[in-house]
Amino acid sequence: MTKPVEPHAVAERELCGLVNGLAQQIADHVRHRAVPLGLTAAQATALREMTGPMTMRELAERMSCEPSNATFVIDKLEKQGLVERRAHPTDRRAKHLFLTATGGAARERLLELLAQDSPLSGLSPEQQRVLQGLLEQALTHP
User: Where are any strands of DSSP class E within 70-113?
Assistant: First the structure.
């Protein structure tokens, strides 16, 4: 005799599948939008997350990766002239990452491309805020 499946377990499994599916769609979208700029998905993610000067550790946190992975990505962006490292104003051990003028222009173009046919574009701004709030709540729940 089979044990009945609890409705909560089914709902959680289905919700996990939806969240994973959305994450995959977003990753695919970033990857496809990065191509016209000659960027990898990781490079595009780094540019998207560089909203101002930041340390490698801060960037890695925003990219949800290890600092060594962010360093590899920044090395490539630096070779392309999109990012530069400068001395941190208060921490001699750290470097601050800055977008160059070319990097700033590339970031603006990337943001325009990412806005086109985004997996989230089917949601209104209000629905996006609600989804964000729910996801934040789920991520911070003990």
Answer: 83-87, 95-99
